[in-house]
Automatic annotation (TrEMBL), chains A, B:
InterPro entries: Fumarylacetoacetase, Fumarylacetoacetase-like_C, Fumarylacetoacetase_C_sf, Fumarylacetoacetase_N, Fumarylacetoacetase_N_sf
Protein name: fumarylacetoacetase
Record-annotated Fumarylacetoacetase-like C-terminal domain positions: 120-404
SUPFAM superfamilies: FAH (SSF56529), Fumarylacetoacetate hydrolase, FAH, N-terminal domain (SSF63433)
Amino acid sequence: MPEQSPLDLADGDPFGPHNLPYGVFTTADEPDRRRLGVRIGNRVLDAGAAAYVLGSPYAVLLARPSLDPLLAAGRTAWRDVRRALTAWLTVPAHRQDVEPLLHPLDSVTLHLPYEVADYVDFYASEHHATNVGRIFRPDGDALTPNWKHLPIGYHGRSGTVVVSGTDVVRPCGQRKAPADAAPVFGPSIKLDIEAEVAFLVGAPSELGRPVALGDFREHVFGLSLLNDWSARDIQAWEYVPLGPFLGKSFATSVSAWVTPLEALDAARSAPPARDFDLLPYLDDSAEEEPGGFDLHITVAVNGHVIAEPPFSTMYWTAAQQLAHMTVNGASLRTGDLYGSGTVSGPEVHQRGSLLELTWNGRDPFELPEGKRTFLEDGDVVTMTAWAPGPDGTRVGLGEVTGRIVPSVVQ
Amino acid sequence: MPEQSPLDLADGDPFGPHNLPYGVFTTADEPDRRRLGVRIGNRVLDAGAAAYVLGSPYAVLLARPSLDPLLAAGRTAWRDVRRALTAWLTVPAHRQDVEPLLHPLDSVTLHLPYEVADYVDFYASEHHATNVGRIFRPDGDALTPNWKHLPIGYHGRSGTVVVSGTDVVRPCGQRKAPADAAPVFGPSIKLDIEAEVAFLVGAPSELGRPVALGDFREHVFGLSLLNDWSARDIQAWEYVPLGPFLGKSFATSVSAWVTPLEALDAARSAPPARDFDLLPYLDDSAEEEPGGFDLHITVAVNGHVIAEPPFSTMYWTAAQQLAHMTVNGASLRTGDLYGSGTVSGPEVHQRGSLLELTWNGRDPFELPEGKRTFLEDGDVVTMTAWAPGPDGTRVGLGEVTGRIVPSVVQ
């Protein structure tokens, strides 16, 4: 929609005024002053400064060092602020005021834009769960009996959620191959990725009050790409009976940009047909809005695409995950973040983890740098994605990238 | 030590000047003004006001609505502040200044004194893990092969950690008995307790830098009693393969009082002999200070004692848990809280959960109100504890109590 923007965007720019993701940035001049920014093309609008210059009542939400006040403000504020931002960036009369408040994207430093409250990770791709089941439990059923009755999830470590671009230190830990007499300690030799989509809770809920499927948009502000780094050797030895712990808790990377749900109205898609009748609190067959999102993810290692996981294939939706997470009365806080679980499609090149892509190391893949089963030190993993936007546009999701650096213990 | 206190404490008061736990309180006059308090006997010192009146440089840490600034200040500050408080409460010359700043315990409202960052729960009692293994996996080994090589733990929901005295709403969720064709939904019919000790992290650590066993006291400020409420029917259906989630996340109660580690120097005790050589980062055989704590816990339902779990029998120590939790480079934040796992001793009356006490409901116990297998609506569960203090005294731990209220769905 180039006619809507006075800002010289390229035709079809996936970060046009139909997108407007939020982030937090600093400039080289003022490295300690965090500011809320909105991405437009390859520039970042200083949203708080714009609110002041344009005399907006939303300065109280935008002239802040964090997205948290806007997140907590709730859906009506989210809608009104987005309308204001759209006007500031598209109405030609504002151009003179707005232009000086735009910073080139490559000139700013991006930060984690919110404080993560609780971090939950789900396991919602049938293809992923089936692959993992076949690899780790070859003698049993691939899916556990509960899998199609509830969205399986667990809590992760919110203190080690880091912003895209943060180096990831190869973790150390215990591992034990079946043939080993005792566990050994050292840097992980099966360092992996998980391509996921993370949903960010804005408006909190009360303790004891479940959030219904239909209230998803009252609470969830937006989404981002997430890489749930995983040390498979550490995970395999520790995870029975209480689930993953150190195999995941060393780092989880999220995009610096949060795409508001309102930018993704054209990307809503129906989830796959369900194999069982769902209990009423999870039954989304009568919901007005389809629960899925048609996000097209690309995973690259050192710039080479290794997978293209389709988010539309996820069995459980984000609304179902939210309803499940709160059905026992657990409350939500501003900044709660939950990951979809690894996104894997039915095809080999749609698998969102190296565990699946290489079948736990059995089938290496080729990079110009050499063969890979799991990640080597120096490898850079980058995930990007797009979704259908209004009128044939594309909505870009902010990338999530990270480089593996060697463990301190060798 | 009545001669040390000018405050008319009863002989042998477990909350004498050798204890001095920290909390946060409000008074009926000023219900919105949270203040840091220190318990002495059955009164609470307004610690911030005392610091001002006595011209203390620690007012900056004590005249705050939360324990967080003191927690973050680190071990030297913890020691110095404790020395100052001890002087204020024991030197007769201060009595005139301090006396007006003491509030009767039963006149104040107590609050969660810190913001919980990450909450982790361990599984460190061999007796508990063995009992649970026998109940849930009767055909397999009671302990998983990893159990004696690493302290098994998982992340829980920090947003639903509540202060002692908060009502607990019976959670709803899915359950499925083996004979059921499909899961059913409703209020939990196996609502349980877990008697635990929680360790509170004060000083943070850097991402990528493990915390060694010997640095436990540099990071951990103190401990409290914790009740990890558990819905066994929800948990049993959901927990394979990624661990407990909704069966635990509805509420976790902690004492309103945090006992500083410095009050427990006389309570340190050697953990049980280990059955396997431990990897170096967990090997505490050469540590100067014994890793255990000789805490004597009492669990009561509606005022009737049902169990007396001995914390000194825990296989894994809090220092080992901290070293393990960070060995992969995971960082610590001020307010990280970790539970020991259910405390159960070798004897039947030492078991810290109803699951174990009734062998999953097979062996009910008697209360004057009637038989119990799991908790009924209206039941009040209260845990208390004491530890040996200096010179034959006892150190009391603040109680953790909670009442079950009916589910909103019936």
